[in-house]
Hints:
flat, 3 domains
Amino acid sequence: xxxPGYGKRSAPDQEPRNKDTFAHLAxxxxxxxxxxxxxxxGAAMDVKTLARDLPPFGQQAVRTALQKLSEAGHxxxxxxxxxxxxxxxxxxxxxxxxxxxxxxxxxxLTGGVTPQxxxxxxxxxxxxxYEALAAAGRKDARMALSAAECEALTPLAEEWLARGAxxxxxxxxxxxxxxxxxxxxxxxxxxRLTTKMPPERAPASTxxxxxxxxxxxxxxxxxxxxxxxxxxxxxxREPESHPDAAAAVHARTDALRAASRAGRDQYxxxxxxxxxx
Length: 277
C-alpha cells in the first residue's frame, strides 16, 4: 500500500470485469492493466513498486506500459491537496478498466463527476419541459401553444431545465411582460427561450487538482495533456514563437526606450532654459 492518501484511485461507472476487458491492448499492457485493476484502493502503483511486484518487467518496461495505458484512456495521474484548504499535496493515479476519452477525463478531473447524464433524469426531463410549455398557456391565454408547438419547443425548454432553471422560472420567462396582443405565441416563446437562456451550471470544482503527464510528471491542464501526456512525451515539439513576432517585440521595446529618452532630454532642456532665465 502507498502512504495514506496516495496511490490508486478507481474511476467511477466502470463496466464489469470480464475476460475481454483488456483484449484491445498489447500483451504487456494487458498484463499490467489486469494487475492494476485488481489492486486495492490506495495501493502503490508507481513505476518502482510495479516493477518490483511484476518480475517479468523492468522499470523502463513498466514506465512505457503506463504511458500506453494512459494513451488508451485507462489512467490519469494527478496531484491534489489533502482536505479543504490543506497544504499537503498527494499524488494519485486514477484508473479505469473501461477506457475513457480525453473529454471524459477532463470532466471527471475538473468537476469530480462523470459527464454521462443519468438515463432516468433524461426520461423525466422531456415531459417536464413539455408540461412547462403547456403551462404557459394556462397561466396566460396569450401564450397558448398547440401540442405540435410544444413538441417543437421542447428541446429549448429541456436545455433550460438542464441548466438548473425550474419549471416555474421557465413559465415566468414566457409570460412576464407580454404585449396586449400576441400574434404568434410559438415565435415569441422561441425567441424568449433563446435570448433569456440561463447560463450553464458550473461543475462542482475540485480546488487545486492538477493533472500530470503520465510519463514525465509535467503538470498541465487536461486539454494540454491529450492521452495524459505532454507534447514532448507525445513526440511533438513545443510551439515556438515566430521570429517575426519576436523581432516586432524587440522593435517596439527599442522605440519605447527611444521615446522615453527623447522625452527626458526635452524635459531637461526646458528645465535648464528656465533656470538660466
